[in-house]
Amino acid sequence: MQVAELFRPVLGDEAPVAIRAYDGSASTPSAADPVATVDVRSETALAYLAASPNSLGLARAYVSGHLDVEGSLYQALTAMSELTVSDVTPSTLLRMAARMAPLRFRHRVAPPPEEHRQRGRRHSKDRDSTAIEHHYDVSNRFYELVLGPSMAYTCAVYPSETATLEDAQFTKHALVAEKLDLQPGMRLLDVGCGWGQMAMHAAEHHGVQALGVTLSRDQATWAQKEVARRGLGDLVEIRHSDYRDVSEGDFDAVSSIGLTEHIGRRNISSYFRFLYAKLRPGGRLLNHCITRPDHHHRAAADPFIDRYVFPDGELLPIGWLISRMNAAGFEIRHEENLREHYSRTLAGWSANLEEHWDACVEEAGEGRARVWRLYMPACQVGFDVNNIQLHQVLGIKLGPDARSGFPLRPAY
After folding, report:
1. Which of 12, 66, 288, 298 has the smallest set of CB atoms within 10 Å of its CB?
2. What does the record give under GO molecular function (predicted)?
């Protein structure tokens, strides 16, 4: 069978994507004009697919450069969003596996070096540290190029259709600060603080004493230098630490922006109990995280995301998370879904990557840059079609008199 015909069931028989292969074969969609062309460049691409006939096999072929996409990768992934490998019927997968079996044994290839496999007990401190190191300790310059001046690697909040990525990231930090009701002299704990932007925002704009903790040594080093550059050393401390090792308590507020996805289902209850214990009575928690829309969507990350992007990541339904947060003692005061905002955020990061492609490759290597070129539009499609969501949940640790201190109608 010609290679293009072999690939067609993987991408979807009706998907408006053309296929061109190294053996000279080609396949064009019958239902519509193609939005992109998948170029199968070598037999190695088939070998990867034969070994893993799912998104992991395709990702290996793409990351290694043995498969490429001409045209918009976002449009191509959107076209295939309802006909992904995970939706290929078992009978089709069996036929493909049988046809590719000889190739699998004739042409053995190792995964690209960018692939990472975790070792040790899941969500132990050592294993979590290794997972964070894999994704974040790449190159601070690489992240500067992709994320832009805001250096915020979490969903932005777009105040308008025309807002820039930088405007939206500032709006996100301002929204978190407003929900936490940050006031001069308060103490904020920012867990999973990244490059420290929330902690610095709280100090600069609200006069707050902030402690940020991150498992990434590179993030901590960059943030510490930025704190010094901005003259915020009296207000902000950035610590290279596991959040579980924070010994201080009696904080007025806790922000958790993009950390819950790394905690794991088994540890969520203890996570919220830990944060509850860190707050004074009347203190607030703002939890900002990616979720799955319901119990029917899988919690485990896509194999490509797990091996190349966020090892050990788990996405949980928002209702389940809220119930665990509530069970830890928090009164839930506000919740909102920002999934459309994350789609825009990812589009902004993808645009930055393309604009600075050569510099990104020089910093992190072509394989790593290709991981990002694939995973960001793939996640953007996920938010577009509601396979994944982004929620902010605000809770409070009530005092003995059960007073919340909230206004009757908060502005947000």
Report:
1. 298
2. methyltransferase activity
Q: Which structural domain range is residue 10 located in?
A: 3-106
pLDDT at 296 over 80: no
Residue 40: closest CA among 12, 16, 11: 11
Q: What residues form DSSP beta bridges with 38? A: 19, 69
Q: Give percent above pLDDT 70 in the chain.
A: 87
Looking at the structure of the chain, the number of domains it has is: 2
Q: Is the pLDDT of residue 341 over 60?
A: yes
Note whether 297 and 369 are same-domain residues. yes
CA dihedral 68, 70, 76, 80 (to 10 degrees): -50
Task: Tell me, yes or no, whether 321 and 368 share the same domain.
Answer: yes
Task: Note whether 89 and 219 are same-domain residues.
Answer: no
Q: Which of 172, 216, 171, 173 is nearest to 194 (CA)?
A: 216
CATH of the domain at 339: 3.40.50.150
pTM metric for this prediction: 0.91
